[in-house]
Amino acid sequence: MPDLLLASSSPWRRELLARLGLPFACASPDIDESPLPGENAETLCLRLAEAKARALAADYPQHLIIGSDQVLLLDGEAVSKPGNHAAAVRQLQLCSGRRIRFSTAICLLNSRSGHIQQAVEPFDVVFRELDNASIERYLLAEQPYDCAGSFKSEGLGISLFESLQGEDPNSLIGLPLIRLCTMLRNEGLQLP
User: Catalytic residue among 3, 69, 146, 168, which?
Assistant: First the structure.
């Protein structure tokens, strides 16, 4: 069985992958995550997930490399991690009372054979109406400045929503485990 490598520095993706009970290593890919002109959200996250996996293939030539990327689409524009409090406030104000689509891409690259599997998992979040005081209380409590959409659905962020709709709730956190399990089985891994 080839070794498993998560091409990510995200602690949330690492935590999700650990749920499968498989041994794995992590390495951070160094790629440019800027969108290309005219690139839609699905194409962007697919391209970045693959780029993350391929960026590590030469250093890990006998591995199954997992790349993943997530894009939040807001008013037709891809939205990234806010990075600071002011940007997080703006993101949550824009999301208030709206249905927002997250696209999470998964790529599994067998660096030995060159075989690649890819998919995008859409996930919709319906935000409740958020007043500024609620936004401030939430951001001060969790400080989700490194999360697209400015929330952590696995934590207090769940209180911001009216509903969630999608096939795999793990995709909202950043790693679609159901699809990944299928890909790993396609490579001969037995789960569970």
Answer: 69
